[in-house]
Specification:
The structure holds two protein chains of two kinds.
Chain A: E1 4-8, H1 12-24, E2 28-33, H2 36-45, E3 50-53, E4 56-57, E5 60-61, H3 63-72, E6 76-80, H4 85-91, E7 96-99, H5 104-116
Parallel strand pairs in A: 1-2, 1-3, 3-6, 6-7
Antiparallel strand pairs in A: 4-5
Helix pairs in contact in A: 1-5
Chain B: E1 24-29, H1 33-42, E2 51-56, H2 66-71, E3 77-80, E4 91-94, E5 100-104, E6 107-111, H3 122-134, E7 138-142, H4 151-159, E8 163-167, H5 176-183, E9 189-191, H6 196-209, H7 212-221, H8 223-233, H9 243-257, H10 262-271, H11 273-284, H12 294-310, E10 318-323, H13 329-345, E11 351-357, H14 360-368, E12 370-372, H15 381-387, E13 388-390, E14 394-397, H16 399-404, E15 405-409, E16 421-426, H17 435-448, E17 449-457, E18 470-474, E19 479-482, H18 494-497, H19 518-530, E20 534-537, E21 543-547, H20 566-569, H21 574-588, E22 592-600, E23 604-614, E24 620-626, E25 631-632, H22 635-724, E26 728-732, E27 738-741, H23 771-782, E28 786-791, E29 798-807, E30 813-822, H24 824-846, E31 849-854, E32 861-863, H25 865-871, E33 877-878, H26 880-885, H27 889-903, E34 909-915, E35 924-933, E36 939-946, H28 948-985, H29 989-1009, E37 1018-1020, H30 1021-1029, E38 1037-1041, E39 1046-1048, H31 1052-1069, E40 1078-1085, E41 1089-1097, H32 1110-1122, E42 1125-1131, E43 1134-1142
Helix pairs in contact in B: 3-4, 7-9, 9-11, 10-11, 12-13, 28-29, 29-30, 29-31, 30-31, 31-32
The chains are: A alpha/beta, B alpha+beta.
Chain lengths: ~120, ~1150
């Protein structure tokens, strides 16, 4: 069974774009979700192998979700307009950060790196 | 001849000595004195060991600058006496103006002048007190000046053994005073001014080194030689003088000359006429007083004067002889006694007083009849009032008294005595005579007195062995009465002393003496009783001696006017015989006789033989032998005798008459001469007064010159100040008349130059009121300055007016000064400043700026109210730590460092920090700025500004920027997404680009609806639709309708993309692509949310490609994202979409 990626992005066109890029790496996309609440509901049923998260969502930042995912050992790729790489890395060690608009190749490379890692317990 | 009455210097028990015992130099100066004093004191080298007292004639009405002027040029202390000063060495005491000076026990006292100006003799007065106080320790110096002040005083100095120096007349500016002093012959040294102090130092040094006893012994051995020298040179014989006195005076002369050997001094006296004169003067020195020995005079009055006056017969005048009258005080005293007695007796008694002395200088003084006022005290008050005329510091004897006294130069020893005198006063003269001389004098006085006349001697004198001639009336008080008798030897006395060549005179058998040998007595008795009447005459007929009863043959006059010529004295009969007898004796040298000569007396005729018996020395003894009894007179006989006179008798008579006339003429001439002399004296005294006035004027002039120089400078300074000052100054006198004003004052009072002297009230002013006149009056009355503001009449200018009292040098108020300062500009400046200050305060308050001051050294900090609020401190003055305690921990150290750095200067302080003043305000951001003020101690001044608002604004801006950045990146991502998606659904690049362009444009339009600020919550649905469909308006009729609905801005792009997709499809396939197609977009609100309808009418083509294109994908994804549902219906020419949007899409849903 193929690996699954959780996609959280509230901007439709970006979400579609990312979905294409993720799927091209051979991952199955769960989403795109537009808010934290929906996402949390989704991971409650099945834990993804990787999560691609926009930071700033309508209705609040993505951090509650990211905290939960980090706790569960799901690698996270932040795709954010807020290029605050340092603080995100400090808060979520092992996560990757790509500033919007990220290049498709870079996104794909990061996803691959993250999915090849052993899932971390937590 | 003069007498000395006061105790001699070294006999005096000195008064209790003051602390200063060195020599005291009195210095008298008048006109030209300033220069002389300067020269004199400039030559002084400290220490001189002497004290100096300067008595200068000064104008009493002017301040004297003498002390200042002299003090500049000398190393000695100079001060002006104010009374009570004790003498001190090397100090010059200067007389103050308007006072005299006196010295008493070494302390200087001021005296008041009682004489009018011009008659004052302050130098004399001071010298007298100096001499009495300091005895031989005193010296006097007489400097330049006119007149003769000081001349009397120097006599006192000399009498008490002091020394006297006069300025060399040729070097003095005015030589009157020095010449007058030198003229007394008593001046010891004559020196130029700059040599005087040196000379004095030498003199006193010499006296200290030469003890008196040594010289005294030397001198005593040589007295006879000295007397001989004086006698040879001057003609006065001092052999009979008291030796002790003589020695003392000689000694002093030796000190003066610096001669130590008596023989050397004798040589000096013998060879030098000047020294001989000087010694002569010194020997005669004395000073007398009015009514000296009061008790004696009282007795004289009671026992002699009053009886004489009361018993006056009314015939002959009363005759008094004062021998050795000196400066005349005693003569005048006796004159006053007589005048007073006459006044009491209420009768006029003619009294003639002959006052004689050999010192012409003293006689001059006596003739003036002017004495220092200090002598007034000696005169009994009643007489003082009646017989003196007081002037300022001197008095004169009234003419009544002066006329009673006749002063003449006459030697008691040398010259013939007066005769028929009622009273002889010869006081304090005999004490200078030794025994031998006294024995000569006493008979002479006896001769001079009338029988019953009186002799008045000095307290220390006695009649000695001559009690046969005088009977003591009161032995203790030295009052004697001439014993009657012995009138028989009146004439021999003057002869022997006349001429220096009759020493053998003393052996004359005729000399009267109680101590003669018995033989002499016998011869005398024989001659008196039994010898025929005889006279001894010289070859001219002058009677040299007379023996036997002569009154029948000679007619002795009561005065000496007729002389003692035997021819003129002889009674008629005898007279005619004596002439031929004399001639006979002279020519033939043999005895001659005239027989049967009838001598006519008053009571009858006596027949005699007259024998002329010539002696060897040209003299002739004329002996009268009676040859018949006396025949009483009968008138007729006179004629008989006369008839016998013959021609020779007539000639003799004529000769006698002629001689008599000649004598009268001579007497008249003498009288006239005397009168001229007295007028001359008056002239001299007037001249003296004028000179003394002149001196004062000249002194004043000297001082004024210096003063004028200083005033000129001061005046120039003042004028420059007046002209340059902007102060308006008006000086008023006490009558409020304008005295002077500055040019600036013309701006307030339009003065003309002629307005000086006009009352200020008459001058208009630019001031609004005239209260300044009242102010000036009040200031003049009270002396309290007044200060107030005055306005110009139009109120445009303001002056600060000060009214000050105008004070004279003496401190009296003599007017007022108005000082006006134009303060209009200053006031306006002050107002501007106040406004400015107010504005600044307002700005500071409005800006919430706190002001602080900090002292880096102490850490003391002062905060204003705003500063306190900002920092949350309740005190105005706090420590630095208290301030820092209010600052947040993070910034505290930074602030402390910044303050310390700024405290060392160079950098301004600037720091922004947080502090928590009060709970209600929350944390405040405060910016502090400060700068060091260079002063001592250094202070830092600065402000606190509340920057909390700026800080939060900046934070917001930062947030906005981040948001904007995010959105832009998001937009890039969206476009990237569109490109990716477009790439999947398009094969043709051109159509892809067109498609993308349209989509981007549509998105852009939608975004333009959102306000750029980004805080807009909702966007009107109608506007969204209008904007999205705007490009298609010209293609078909489009109607948009619905109630106002605001869409959440997050849904904006989704709705816009959907509408764009629908419109694009409609252009391609539906109503918008048809000519007559219509589009109707409408919406309504319902319970679920918004129901949006898209209704197309018109022919619709089928899509060529029905596969799910990019547009469809977009719409579906959008709908999904919005949570909306869609219902699509197509019937014939109508295509309708019905979309239900949930409430979440609404802006406030």
């Amino acid at each position: 069974m193929g690996k699954r990626a959780l996609l959280v992005e509230d901007e439709l066109l970006i979400a579609l774009d990312l979905q294409g890029i993720i799927e091209e790496t051979g991952l199955t996309v769960d989403g795109p979700y537009i808010d934290v609440a929906g996402s949390l509901k989704a991971i409650g049923t099945a834990l993804p192998d990787v999560a691609v998260l926009d930071v700033s969502l309508r209705g609040g930042d993505v951090f509650p979700l990211a905290d939960r995912l980090h706790q569960l050992g799901v690698p996270i790729l932040f795709h954010s307009g807020h290029a605050d790489t340092g603080s995100l890395n400090r808060r979520y060690p092992g996560s990757a950060v790509i500033s919007k608009p990220g290049s498709p190749a870079q996104l794909a490379a990061r996803l691959r790196e993250l999915t090849q890692q052993e899932p971390q317990g937590g | 001849m003069t007498r000395l009455h006061s105790p001699l210097p070294d006999e005096v028990g000195q008064a209790p000595l003051p602390s200063f015992s060195g020599p005291v130099i009195g210095i008298g100066a008048s006109a030209g004195g300033l220069e002389a004093l300067r020269d004199m004191f400039a030559a002084a080298d400290r220490p001189t060991g002497m004290a100096y007292v300067v008595v200068q004639h000064l104008d009493p009405t002017h301040e004297s600058m003498l002390a200042e002027l002299i003090g500049r040029g000398t190393s000695l202390e100079v001060l002006q006496v104010s009374g009570g000063e004790r003498l001190a060495p090397d100090t010059v005491f200067i007389i103050p103006p308007g006072h005299g000076l006196a010295l008493h026990q070494g302390i200087l006292r001021l005296t008041e002048f009682s004489q009018p100006r011009g008659l004052r003799r302050p130098i004399d007065d001071f010298f007298v007190s100096l001499a009495q106080d300091q005895q031989n320790n005193a010296a006097c110096v007489i400097l330049s000046g006119t007149g003769s002040d000081g001349t009397t005083g120097l006599r006192a100095i000399k009498e008490h053994g002091g020394v006297c120096i006069a300025q060399a007349p040729e070097a003095a500016k005015y030589d009157g005073m020095p010449l007058s002093a030198i003229g007394t012959g008593l001046v010891d040294f004559v020196e130029p001014a700059n040599g005087i102090i040196g000379r004095l130092e030498n003199f006193f040094a010499r006296r200290r080194s030469m003890p008196l006893a040594d010289t005294a012994a030397q001198v005593a051995d040589h007295i006879d030689q000295l007397c001989e020298a004086i006698k040879t040179t001057i003609g006065h014989d001092f052999v009979g003088y008291k030796r002790s006195t003589f020695v003392r005076r000689v000694e002093r002369r030796m000190h003066v000359l610096g001669i130590t050997s008596a023989t050397e001094y004798i040589r000096q006296v013998q060879n030098d006429r000047t020294e001989c004169d000087a010694l002569f003067r010194d020997l005669l020195i004395n000073v007398t007083r009015f009514f000296r020995d009061t008790e004696h005079f009282e007795q004289l009055r009671a026992k002699v004067v009053e009886p004489l006056v009361q018993g006056w017969s009314g015939e002959e005048e009363l005759r008094v002889w004062v021998a050795g009258c000196s400066s005349g005080e005693e003569a005048f005293s006796i004159a006053m006694l007589f005048a007073d007695a006459a006044r009491r007796a209420q009768r006029s008694v003619p009294t003639q007083i002959f006052a004689t002395d050999i010192d012409e200088q003293m006689l001059q003084i006596a003739r003036e009849g002017t004495y220092p006022a200090s002598s007034l005290a000696d005169i009994p008050p009643a007489m003082r009032e009646a017989y003196t005329i007081p002037q300022t510091d001197r008095f004169t004897v009234v003419p009544l008294i002066r006329d009673m006294v006749r002063f003449s130069n006459h030697s008691l020893i040398k010259d013939p005595p007066f005769s028929r005198v009622d009273l002889v006063s010869c006081r304090n003269l005999l004490i200078y005579f030794e025994e031998r001389l006294q024995t000569q004098v006493m008979p002479l006085l006896h001769y001079a007195l009338k029988p019953g006349g009186h002799l008045f001697l000095g307290p220390a004198e006695t009649i000695g062995r001559f009690d046969n001639m005088f009977r003591p009336l009161d032995a203790r008080l030295r009052l004697f009465e001439r014993r009657p008798g012995s009138p028989a030897y009146p004439l021999p006395l003057p002869g022997p002393v006349r001429g220096a060549t009759a020493p053998e005179r003393t052996s004359s058998l005729l000399q009267s003496s109680a101590g003669r040998a018995p033989d002499d007595l016998a011869v005398r008795r024989l001659v008196e009783r039994y010898a025929p009447a005889s006279v001894l005459v010289d070859h001219d007929g002058l009677i040299l001696a007379a023996y036997g009863p002569l009154s029948r043959y000679f007619d002795f006059p009561t005065t000496r006017a007729g002389g003692t010529n035997a021819i003129s004295l002889a009674r008629p009969g005898l007279r005619e015989v004596i002439g031929p007898l004399l001639r006979q004796g002279r020519d033939n040298g043999g005895r001659a006789i005239a027989r049967d000569v009838e001598v006519a007396g008053e009571y009858g005729t006596q027949r005699v033989e007259v024998i002329g018996d010539p002696l060897e020395d040209n003299r002739m003894l004329v002996v009268l032998r009676e040859t018949a009894p006396f025949q009483p007179a009968a008138d007729a006989q006179l004629h008989e005798i006369k008839a016998d006179d013959g021609y020779a008798g007539a000639l003799e008579e004529e000769l006698r008459l002629t001689r008599h006339r000649l004598r009268s003429a001579v007497e008249e001439l003498e009288t006239a001469n005397e009168e001229l002399k007295s007028s001359n004296e008056e002239m001299m005294s007037m001249n003296e007064e004028l000179q003394s006035t002149n001196e004062e004027l000249s002194t004043v002039n000297d001082e004024l010159k210096s003063k004028v120089d200083q005033l000129t400078v001061a005046n120039a300074d003042l004028r420059n100040f007046f002209e340059s000052t902007d102060l308006a100054v008006v000086v008023l006198d006490t009558q409020l008349r304008v005295r002077s004003f500055t040019p600036a004052a013309v701006g307030v009072f339009p003065f003309q130059p002629a307005d000086r002297g006009r009352p200020l009230a008459d001058v208009t002013s630019r001031l609004s009121d005239t209260d300044y006149l009242a102010d000036a009056r009040r200031v003049i009355a009270t002396g309290e300055p007044v200060q107030r503001r005055v306005l110009s009449d139009k109120g445009a200018r303001t002056w600060a007016m000060r009214v000050l009292p105008y004070k004279t040098q003496a401190g009296e108020i003599d007017g007022a000064s108005l000082v006006l300062t134009d303060i209009t500009d200053a006031l306006s400046l002050q107002r501007d400043l106040a406004t400015e200050q107010e504005r600044l305060d307002l700005a500071i308050r409005a800006g919430g700026i706190g002001v602080w001051e900090h002292c880096p050294q102490t850490g003391d900090t002062i905060l204003d109210e705003t500063g306190q609020q900002l920092l949350g401190i309740a005190n105005e003055s706090v420590t630095l730590d208290a301030v820092l305690g209010q600052i947040a921990d993070e910034e505290r150290e930074a602030v402390r460092e910044a303050l310390a750095r700024a405290g060392t200067g160079g950098h301004d302080f600037e720091a922004t920090f947080r502090c928590k003043p009060e709970r209600s305000l929350g944390v405040r951001w405060v910016k502090g700025i400060g700068r060091l003020v260079e002063q001592e101690p250094p202070r830092m001044v600065g402000v606190f500004i509340d920057v909390t608002a700026e800080f939060s604004l900046a934070q917001t801006r930062e947030m906005l920027l981040r948001e904007m950045n995010h959105r832009v990146k998001n937009l890039f991502a969206v476009i990237a997404g569109m490109v990716t998606a477009g790439g999947r659904s398009h094969d043709n690049v051109r159509s892809l680009v067109t498609d993308l362009r349209e989509r981007i444009a549509a998105l852009g339009r939608a975004h333009s609806l959102a306000s750029p600020a980004g805080d807009q919550e909702g966007i009107a649905l109608a506007a969204l639709m209008e904007e999205t469909l705007a490009p298609y308006r010209d293609h078909a009729r489009i109607e948009i309708a619905g109630p106002p609905v605001d869409i959440d801005r997050g849904c904006l792009s989704l709705l816009a993309m959907m509408a764009h997709e629908w419109a694009t499809n409609s252009m391609k396939y539906g109503a918008l692509g048809q000519e007559d197609g219509t589009l109707e977009v409408s919406w309504e609100l319902n319970t679920e949310g918004v129901l949006l309808r898209w209704q197309e009418r018109g022919k619709r083509q089928d899509k060529a490609d029905d596969r799910a294109g990019f547009g469809t994908l977009l719409v579906d994804a959008s709908l999904k994202q919005l949570g909306a549902t869609i219902d699509k219906t197509m019937t014939g020419h109508s295509f309708a979409l019905s979309v239900t949007l949930p409430r979440t899409v609404l802006a406030n849903g």
